[in-house]
Amino acid sequence: MNRRGFTLIELLVVIFIISVLISIGSVTYVYMLSRGKVAETQQLIQQVSMAIEAYHNDERYGGDYPPSSLRAYKISTNGVNDGIESVVAHVFKLIGSDTFIGEVKDKFFANTDEDSIGGGFDPKWVFGDLKARELVDSWGNPLIYFHHCDYKEPGSHITKYKLGNKKYIQAKPQIDKKKGMYPNWNSFVIWSCGPNGENENGGGDDVSNFK
Ligand SMILES: [Ca+2]
Ligand SMILES: [Ca+2]
Ligand SMILES: [Ca+2]
Question: CA-to-CA distance for 23 and 88, rounded, in angstroms?
Fold first, then answer.
């Protein structure tokens, strides 16, 4: 039998093809992973938006959306993640005795600015401690929220990137240039910085309730 081994060139070609296939596979995997996180964050924003609407529709709470900061209740805040901390306080039973949202996975709660709530609310009722929690996206960055009254003057609302990356940013809703007005001009906006982790005020790859 005339058996012939691989030549060096053939071997190199095979190795090259295999490495190309592996790199295509890993790029696809990373892409799918990122797509999964976007979808997950979209779902979270949708769930929270529905809870905010339910709060708004409950006449016992004045028929308004949660304010952009707990300062509306004369509670001192550190000015970081104010909007989304206010949302947590309003939809998770800290105000009144109603909860407006179903189960949310633990990984979507964090206290990236390491602050606490005092003077009126007692988060211990719900969470067992005084941490001023915010909701974070699938990449661990805080969501950003504004009541429509604060679109023009977002005041001191600053959002902090996730722990270990001590970067503060000033978030501000932007006028939709095509329509010439703010998105959701009579309700609220909520967004995530998206896969790139950079705030684009709801534009770019940000995931929001208005795109
Ligand atoms: Ca805070
Ligand atoms: Ca916090
Ligand atoms: Ca972004």
Answer: 42
